[in-house]
Write a structure and sequence with these properties.
Shape: globular
Radius of gyration: 17 Å
Number of domains: 1
Number of helices: 8
CATH superfamily: Flavodoxin domain
CATH architecture: 3-Layer(aba) Sandwich
Helix content: 40-55%
Oligomer: single chain
Length: 201
């Protein structure tokens, strides 16, 4: 397809001093100039939604939500062709703010692919296991390949205050086996193009 694929990188933590801002911004810089791609970093801090309290399920709201911030969030997600969620692991799961943001919407997510970047305990792998189940329920297509960031990166960021994102996360592309960013993007874009083509028929 000739149109660019719109990828939304969702920063899934609103915590003060969150580490997730670093990999999210690094990933944005890595893929912003990718061919036929339009990338946007979407920060949940910019969408202070209430805890989900609607009387009916979002799948029955026809994208007409009772809250102005949720309506803004709906428009942003609906604009995406594919997503990369940057998620922390909190107590064997992912953040409550991310779950709330996901749960407020329904058709905006459907028939679109999603990839994951995680960090924290077990490199965030257990959070992503749970997220995969959630996005499938929303009729999304989770990509198998993911980027898991271990504690050594978090500790290094804390001890070397002036280290750049390229220096910190460079090993994820250069010296630890296959290029994880390229692998994630290859699968995400393949699926995004296939699904976008199917949605527009």
């Amino acid at each position: 397809m000739s149109e660019k694929i719109k990828i939304k990188i969702i920063l899934g933590s609103i915590r003060e001093g969150r580490f997730g801002e670093r990999p999210a911004r690094w990933l944005y810089e890595q893929i912003k100039d990718w061919k036929d791609v339009e990338v946007e970093l979407v920060d949940l801090k910019d969408y202070p939604m209430p805890l989900f309290d609607a009387p009916i399920t979002p799948s029955m709201m026809n994208m007409k939500y009772p809250n102005a911030v949720v309506q803004k969030w709906s428009a942003k997600v609906n604009d995406g062709d594919a997503f990369i969620i940057v998620a922390p692991e909190y107590n064997h799961g992912y953040s409550g703010s991310l779950k709330n943001a996901i749960d407020w919407l329904s058709p905006e997510w459907g028939r679109k692919p999603v990839g994951f970047v995680s960090y924290g305990s077990a490199s965030g792998s257990r959070a992503i296991e749970q997220l995969r189940e959630v996005v499938i329920e929303l009729n999304m297509v989770p990509i198998k390949k993911a980027i898991h960031i271990g504690w050594e990166f978090i500790m290094k960021a804390g001890s070397e205050k002036n280290i750049s994102n390229d220096e910190l996360f460079g090993p994820l592309r250069k010296s630890m086996g296959p290029d994880r960013v390229a692998g994630l993007m290859e699968d995400l874009l393949w699926m995004a193009n296939a699904l976008k083509n199917a949605r527009t028929k």
